[in-house]
Amino acid sequence: MVKNYSELTRSLNKGFLLNEQELKRIIDVISEQFDKLGENKKAKYNYTIKNFNGLVEETDNLEHLLKSENIGNSQIIELIIIAISEDESNSIFLKFSNNLSDRNGEERAIKYTIKSEERDWAIISSSLIDDRLNRISKNNVTSLLIRRIIAIFIAIFMISMISYVTFILGDKDSNNNITLKTLNNIEKSIAKGTDLDILSSIVKIEKSKIETHNSMSLSKYILMIFVPFLLLTLFAEDLRKLTNRYFPSRIFYWGDFIEKYDKMIRRRNFFLGFIFITIVISIIINLFSNYLWERVIN
Predict the structure, then answer these.
(1) Cβ(78)–Cβ(50) under 8 Å?
(2) I need a surface site. Which of 79, 130, 138, 142 has the fewest CB within 10 A?
(3) Could you give the 3-state DSSP secondary structure of residue 268?
(4) Residue 137's pLDDT is what?
(5) What whole-number distance in Å separates Cα of residue 205 and Cα of residue 182?
(6) How do the domains of the chain map onto residue ranges?
């Protein structure tokens, strides 16, 4: 016996935010397509969910799936929807994978396969499913770019602070010592009754600062460049996990995960806002101090 059928398979590497309403709409679209095949080809559904702890659960009840906790060890990392006609001549396989867990090796976020003896039905079904998936998809390129930019920015910010504390402040101690030595010499000259020009004394002090800065060894400059790259390399994996946690691109948005996700977004926005405000304030203070210094000199 020879059996011919059409098979359409597509994988999408897009992020998604799948909530209860959108999931039901996808199911409705699939059901409507099966209804067009005839009375004896109604869809029978099977839902499979895989949790973070490795537990796999199968059900034919959509409401049971939506009542799952979806948090902690019970957080959903994979959802499979299988719809098969009663005579098993037509089927739709749809899979959503969540990259929040390192235990899930699925690379593609969404994958579906449509099998049918009627090619036109398979093509139309594919088009309708694509339309629904586009409504829940997040632009993965833009999202990934933003995540990487923010991750690199945070890493550079933190490493710059470490480098500043390690090298610049240490260099400032040397600078302060030489400046203090210059001030002591001026103080001794005053104690001896030597007439001093105030402007020339200020020039001496500033020269000592510049000479100290210029005397900074080449090895320190090399370390200031090498250390940040070394730290980025050592903590690259931790940084990736951090961005995956606070910038998730694949989200099953129902159950207890709704509250967790909303809190995470608020914490993330607060943290980014704090960094942004800190940078703006530091720039303003630096510009203002430079302005005041120029006024004093002039």
Answers:
(1) yes
(2) 142
(3) helix
(4) 82
(5) 6
(6) 6-138, 142-255
pLDDT score recorded for residue 265:
86
Helices (H), the chain: 20-35, 62-66, 119-136, 140-163, 169-191, 198-214, 218-234, 236-246, 257-297
Q: What is d(CA 239, CA 233) in angstroms, rounded to the nearest whole number?
A: 10
Mean pLDDT comparison of 50-54, 245-249, 281-285, highest-scoring range: 50-54
The candidate with the shortest Cα–Cα distance to 220, out of 258, 168, 147, 264, is 168
How sure is the predictor about 236, in pLDDT bands with cuts at 50, 70 and 90? low
Mean pLDDT, the chain, whole residue set:
77
Whether the Cβ atoms of residue 42 and residue 60 lie closer than 8 Å to each other: no
Asked if 42 contacts 35 with a C-beta cutoff of 8 angstroms, the reply is yes
Tell me the residue type at 291: Y
The tally of CA atoms less than 13 A away on the side-chain side of residue 196 is 18
Mean pLDDT of all residues in 64-92: 91
